[in-house]
Amino acid sequence: MTEPTKIKRPTQRTIAAKMGISVGAVSRALANDPQMSEETRALVKSVATELGYSPDRAAQRLRTGRTKVINLILPPHEEILGFGTLLIRGISAQLENTGYHLVVLPDFGLDKSAEQIQRVVRDKLADGIIFSRTTPDDNRIKFLLEADFPFVSHGRSELATPHPFVDYDNYAFGRQAAETLIDRGAQKLGILLPPERFTFRQHLLHGFMTSVRAAGVDCEVLDGISLDSSAEAISANIHKRFAAPDAPDGLVLPGDVSGLAALAAIQDLGLVPGQDVQLVVKQTSGVFDLVRPKVPSLYEDLSEAGEKLADLLLKRIAGAPTAELQYIQTISSGASTSDTSPDSQSRVSSAS
C-alpha cells in the first residue's frame, strides 16, 4: 500500500526563494519592521498568504519565550445584548496583523475565572489576559499584579496598587440618565443596579445620586432584583412595583435586556412610556433604535472597548508603565436620539 505523500510546510525560506530576497528580509517584513517600506511588507505578506505560510509557533515560543496568544476570559453577560460578539470584534480588529491570536475562555463565575487565570499564568498558556466584571478588592487583579503577568481588566478596582484597565464612565451615565428623566418632568426616580460586589455599581449610583440631590427629587433603588436578574424576574418585579400607588415616574435601566423587560412590564400595566413613566436605557446593541414607543438611550461602544483593551495589553506586554494603561471610555456619540422631543434629544445626543 502506497503511503500518503507528506505535504511540506512552507517556511520563510520558501517565501524568500520565491521572491528572490533574503530570509532575513522576509522575517523582518512578517514582523512589521518599520524600517522596511510598507509596499515591501505588504508584498511579502501577500506571497506568504499565497503559499499558505503560517509561523511555527513551537519554534517561535522557544526562540522568543512568547506564545503569541491573548486570552479573553468571557463571562455570559446576559444582561447586555451582544456583549461577547462586540468585545471580540474590537479585540480581533486590534490584534490583526500583530501576530497575536485571541483564545476565548468562557467564565461562569468569579471563582472559575480566578482558577482559569491561575492556570494560564502557571502553565504559560498566553502572553496576556483580558477579563471583566471587576470588584473593589479583586483577587484576580491582586494575583496578576503579584505575578507581574500582563493583563488589562474591563472595569476598575479600588486597590491601592494601580493596574491597567479600560472602563466605561458609568458615573457619567448615571448622572446624565437621571438629568434626562428630571428634564422630562419625573419627580421620583428609580434605578436598577448591578449586584453589590461589582465596582461599577458604586459609579452608577454615585452619578445617579449627584443629579437627584442637585434637583431635590425623590429616588429609590429597585429592591429584590439586580442587573444580573433574569429578564422574567426584572419584568415581574417592575410590574409589581409600578402597580403600587407610590411608584416612581422615572426609571434608569443600565442594560438592553433590563430596558426591554421594563418596557414589557410598564405596557402590560397599560402605562405609556414617555408619558406615564419616563425611561432612559444604556444600550450596546442598537436595539433601542428600533423599539417603539421610542425611548431615550445612552450608548456604550463595546467594540471600541475591545480595541482599547487589546491596544493597552499589547503595550503592557511591551513594557509600558501602568500610568499609560488606564482608559475611561466616555459615553459614545453613537448615543440614540430615538426620543423626538427637542429637549430630550439635545440631552441624550450631547452625552459624549
From TrEMBL:
The keyword Repeat does not apply. GO terms for molecular function: DNA-binding transcription factor activity; transcription cis-regulatory region binding. Residues 10-64 form the HTH lacI-type domain. InterPro entries: HTH_LacI, LacI/GalR-like_sensor, Lambda_DNA-bd_dom_sf, Peripla_BP_I. PANTHER family: HTH-TYPE TRANSCRIPTIONAL REGULATOR GALS, LACI-RELATED TRANSCRIPTIONAL REPRESSOR. PROSITE patterns: HTH_LACI_2. Keywords: DNA-binding, Plasmid, Transcription, Transcription regulation. Pfam families: LacI (PF00356), Peripla_BP_3 (PF13377). It comes from the Bacteria. SUPFAM superfamilies: lambda repressor-like DNA-binding domains, Periplasmic binding protein-like I. This is LacI family DNA-binding transcriptional regulator. SMART domains: HTH_LACI. It comes from Parasedimentitalea marina. Coiled coil: none annotated.
